[in-house]
Here is the input.
Amino acid sequence: MPVSDNRLGLADPARNLTPRPQMRLRAPVPPPSDQADLARYLRATAARADADDLDMAFGNCAVAIDAAGRWRAGPALAAAYSLRASVGRRMGRLPAAERDGELAARMQGDDPWDDAALLLRARRVSTRLDTGDVPGAEKLLIGFRGTLPDSPSALALRYARGRFYGCAGHPGEALADLFACGERLAARQADRPGVLPWRSAAAAALVATGATEAAARLVAAEVGLARRSGPASALGRALRVEGIVPGGPGIGALDEAVKLLQRSPRRFEYAQALVELGTALNAARRRPQARRVLREGVQIATECGSPALAARSRAAYISAGGKPHQRRPT
Here is the structure.
């Protein structure tokens, strides 16, 4: 797929950026007063999750699940499980996020094109991609490979589908979806890398096509935006991708990503950064450092429930001279 530097302002990374001050939300969200108030409570909880107040958001989801169950509010109960699946995924609790997504799917109505259903599908695809279950993600996209509606929920699904195409080795299709996300977000003045980091996802796909200069410009734009608008995890993610672009800042960006994400509640993002930094250190023949970083990467990827990332980290650890884990005889 040919990529023009002028598309979406790649020749001018400052174009179409809408930086916003990072919100620091500390006061508790007032609990829902009745069934009609559940929608307000879930919206406020989603805002907390976007600001990386994940512990609070996860607890709020439990409150919403309990309230919706007592009030027999079926759609709200499905929405609460769906949101908890999203929050759990961001926290690196991938098996729990998968279970919550399945529960929400069972409770939803029969219309798969409903906004809530599209958003849940996007969340479930993203969870499966994080675990490395690309075939499982593909199953969720059956019937959703063509044109999608122009709604925020459909935009989230388009982003997840773009990620899927990138993981499945189809960079052209990935770029088509991810650039479409960028165009729609810019038109809505809602371009926030903490919510839909389409630039870094597209940059990874561009690297796969050999378009490394375009990838570098694109991810540099996301780094700049994330530095101005936060949260810190968005900057950590962007730096991680910037660090793997050939000819880019490399270990320097990856080291900054690890330091940022170490203090973040996003444990899976932290594990990803550790694996990339350890791999780069090994390539630079800094093997003792690489082994220390990759050993932690194996541990956290395993704790998060991502067999694919754990296996990749373990292979890199052995490549750096680490000893494979020996099981004790029974």
Summary: Residues 74-91 form the longest helix (18 residues). Residues 1-23, 326-330 have pLDDT under 50 and may be disordered.
